[in-house]
Amino acid sequence: MDRRAELKARHREAILDAADALILDRGRARFSVDELADRADIARRTVFNHFSSLDDVIMTTCTRTLNRAVDEFLAVAGVTPSSHGSRVHLFDEITAAIRAMDLPSLVLYFFGLLDGDDARKQNADSVFMRSSEDLTDELTRRSGVDEFEVAILVSTLMNGIAVVARHWMVQSGGTLDESSRRLWDSLLDRLIRIVGDGFSTPS
Amino acid sequence: MDRRAELKARHREAILDAADALILDRGRARFSVDELADRADIARRTVFNHFSSLDDVIMTTCTRTLNRAVDEFLAVAGVTPSSHGSRVHLFDEITAAIRAMDLPSLVLYFFGLLDGDDARKQNADSVFMRSSEDLTDELTRRSGVDEFEVAILVSTLMNGIAVVARHWMVQSGGTLDESSRRLWDSLLDRLIRIVGDGFSTPS
DNA sequence: TACACTACGTGCAACGACGCACTCAGTGCA
DNA sequence: TGCACTGAGTGCGTCGTTGCACGTAGTGTA
């Protein structure tokens, strides 16, 4: 890899790491671009060379966290494919990772509500809208774990995301507008169809 | 300080640090620009943005080492201005620093033998050609140490440089051409005049 | 001698970080 | 309502790093 590309990628990662730390410290949007740049040890202007907005930084950070949780799942699943205890531990890990994310923003991002970007909507589909069968198939192939166990993990993962996201959204004071809420409800519907009976609705 | 200037200075220091390590590992000119750049984690081309040649890098590294030895001398002298034991220790430190340098190249550099740069010849004068009185006066003023003790230190420093440089030069196989040797002899003559009876000539 | 090979050093253009001045939107206060 | 202040985001010129092609010098080898 090109040294230029390396340096650029390193800067990008530095921004995401800084955002990750700041989100965990103070929650979303509780910090300025200046603080982010300071923490990443780069110039303020450079943030906007990598991301279109501060929201974009936060969203990307959240998706990265999610992807890492999935990767960790695969790694753990690959190492101990039949240990039930490690599965339980894994659920806790995933739940913790999800709780660390800014779910409302993340979900809105996946649905492209924050802007009309078609690429993001496609990304949303590829992550959340993929059918449970497809997701289970892929994870089974990649991890080599028994398909039934993977199906359970997938259900739990999707269920966890839905429940925690809903929880966050209610706590944040219902800032969704009407169209956003309709999309959110349709997400819940689709998730319910995917994960089946395992889904539980909070008040 | 500007962030740009900071980055640039950091690169320069990285080059010098890498050169320092490589010189200690293998001796002068036993490494390529590519190795230097790799070790400094920068592009090869960037070396020539900071220095005019690989020799320039080596010379600058040596002068930096010398300057640090002098700075350390001043710091130590300032802290314990009347401790004879620390003085003896200081001589060992300076000698060690000098031994770590690539003295032949350093001396040649100061005398402007590697190129005809007038600025370098002036720099040579300002460091090596300054009379012992001037150097003693300045060091006395800066350190606050008794002038007589400073004079002894200056003699020892100059003496040490001359002896060790001579030693290195003989060991390196007498690669000096005739004109270089004449200048080297004149350096010895001037140093002998400066440091007086303390000077000892190796075979 | 001819030739391959290695390493130094340069010229040049592209690219990304940077600084700065600026607009704009939100917010608190008189 | 008017006004000051803060922070997001933009436009643009500058500057340093980088990659690449190139020329050159020294060295080993047929």
TrEMBL record, chains A, B:
InterPro entries, alphabetized: Homeodomain-like_sf, HTH-type_TetR-like_transc_reg, HTH_TetR
Gene3D superfamilies reported in the protein's UniProt record: Tetracycline Repressor, domain 2 (1.10.357.10)
Keyword Cell cycle part of the UniProt annotation: no
Name of the protein described by the UniProt record: Transcriptional regulator, TetR family
Source organism per UniProt: Agreia pratensis
Pfam families, alphabetized: TetR_N
Chain ranges of the HTH tetR-type domain: 9-69
A Gene Ontology molecular function term of the record: transcription cis-regulatory region binding
Regions recorded as binding DNA: 32-51
Keywords of the record: DNA-binding
